[in-house]
Amino acid sequence: MSLHVDDGEIVALLGANGAGKTTTLRAVSGLVRHTGGVVFAGRQLSRARADSVARAGVAHVPEGRGLFAELSVWENLRMGAYVRGERRTIRGEAPRVFKYFPWMERRRNQQAGTLSGGEQQMLALARALVGRPRLLMLDEPSLGLAPTVVTEIFRIVKELNAEEGLTVLVVEQNANVALDAAARAYVLEVGQVAIEGESGDLRRHEGVRKSYLGY
Amino acid sequence: MPLFFTWTDFAQQITSGLAAGAVYASLALALVLIYQTTNVVNFAQGEMATLTTYIAWTLMDRGLPYWPAFALTLAIAFGGGVAVERVLIRPVEHRPELVIVILTIGMLIAINGLTGWIWGPEVKLFDSPFPNSSVIVGGVAVSVRDIGTFCVCLGTVVVLWLFFRFTTLGLAMRAVAFNPAASRLMGVRVGWMLALGWGFAAVLGAIAGMMAAPSIFLDPDMMIVVLIYAFAAAVLGGIDSPIGAVVGGLLLGVVVNLLGAYVDFVGQELRLPTALAVLLVVLIVRPTGLFGRVHVRRV
């Protein structure tokens, strides 16, 4: 399997259950052992542990979001800043993140575990943004969320990409919203790249349409 | 046993109960710190405390004044705690919890043997920095040593609380306790946070040992009973709650002292069984302890 994400790009990773989408992200961020190479910003990361991959500038919002449920919204955001020096970073980055998620500022002392599913996903996203990652990896951000919330989350991701040049690799089952946000996409089938191309081309692709878009 | 009940005597029993309870609280907090990250009870916590108390004794025996010896002992305890985690616990970190429990029991036996071998089995006197006199507080004569013990133990707890509440490192350590996998994704060196936890636990143990030693005297088995009280305190508070450990320790100290003083058949001999009986009743009513978290998860 070979794939690449360019600076400032949103790339989607599509495919059915068990195709290896999540495992791909976990391999990049050093959570699973793998063969082959991961090159990030000219640096070989394939032997690196998860914490040093994070410090290199890769933010991974995992399946299930990986929030600290017992900590407050604010403490979760502070943890996002840890990677760049918490105290120095959070002061500058918090206002920037609150601009995209205004409700978070009002509810900064709320325990993260008591947020709704959509709010938790937004907090996980915001926490990743606080660290100013060079690559943001989102694993199934739409999972279990209402359609309006999914639209909202992808709208913010697109906005961040347009305004700040944020680079995103997003894994999705919901091919429709993913292709809408991404410039390019890879379709995985049993651990291999089956189809790749521009989002527009994939939308018109017969197999993709039938298997993943449902029309 | 007092013949007549007097408020003065009652107040004195409370203060000495609080002093003993502060020692239990320190060691209970040490147990909770390790339980939160490693998910096991460190059975060697008491023996580690005894060992560091012997080190303090040796430093003072060589002529070091009390407080420098105290500070140096805390530094040694911290380094020792970190080293124990890095060298002994880390290799079995991902093994079943029973493996780690057995390892800590092995450490208990090994350290107990080591202290007996180095310092001998005879009981040693251990200095207290506080005079064995009393001061009048609100018309009641209170032991200065009790007040001092209480303040040192609780002062340490407060400093630790401030550390966890207000520093980046403290936040990262809490994050690791709650969710080590997510912490790793935040760029936290999880292994070192665990080691720091063991270091702080060893410091708390050293304080408990040095504060307990003047009244219960220094010998290789000194902390065994204290550790049982600390277990009881930690479980009473809810084994994963730091506040619970502190409240549990103080509560246990006071209740045990009052039972020993005012309930005839309990006296001095039956204090420990009585304390454990009280604990059993609390746990039947509240299985997660006084402050324990009930694990509820949104799915």
In brief, what are we looking at here?
The complex is a heterodimer of chains A (215) and B (299). Chain A is an alpha/beta fold. Chain A is built from ten helices and eight strands.
Describe this structure in words.
The complex is a heterodimer of chains A (215) and B (299). By secondary structure, chain A is α/β, with parallel strands linked by helices. Chain A has two domains: 1-57 and 134-215, 3-Layer(aba) Sandwich (Rossmann fold), CATH 3.40.50; 67-132, no CATH class. Chain A is built from ten helices and eight strands. Chain A has a six-stranded mixed β-sheet, sandwiched between helices. A two-stranded antiparallel sheet of chain A has the order 2-3. In chain A, helix 3 packs across helix 4 and helix 3 packs parallel to helix 6 (117-130). The longest helix of chain A is centred in the last third of the chain and has 18 residues, at 147-164. Chain B is mostly helical. Chain B has a single domain (7-285), classed as ABC transporter involved in vitamin B12 uptake, BtuC (Orthogonal Bundle), CATH 1.10.3470. Chain B contains eleven helices and two strands. The longest helix of chain B has 32 residues, at 7-38. Chain B is globular. The model of chain B has no long low-confidence stretch (mean pLDDT 90).
Feature tags:
heterodimer; A: alpha/beta; Rossmann fold; 2 domains; two-stranded antiparallel ribbon; 8 strands; 45% helix; globular; B: 299 residues; mainly alpha; ABC transporter involved in vitamin B12 uptake, BtuC; 11 helices; 3% strand
Structural class of chain B: mainly alpha
Q: Classify the oligomer.
A: heterodimer
Strand content of chain A: 15-25%
What is the CATH class of the largest domain in chain A? Alpha Beta
Give the class of chain A from helix and strand content and strand pairing.
alpha/beta
User: How many strands in all of chain A?
Assistant: 8
Mean residue pLDDT of chain B: 90
**Order of helical and strand elements of chain B:** HHHHEEHHHHHHH
The largest pleated sheet of chain B is described as: 2 strands, antiparallel
Count of separate DSSP helical elements of chain A: 10
CATH structural architecture of the largest domain in chain A? 3-Layer(aba) Sandwich
Relative strand content of chain B: under 5%
**Whole-number tally of structural domains of chain B:** 1
The overall average pLDDT of chain A, rounded, is 90
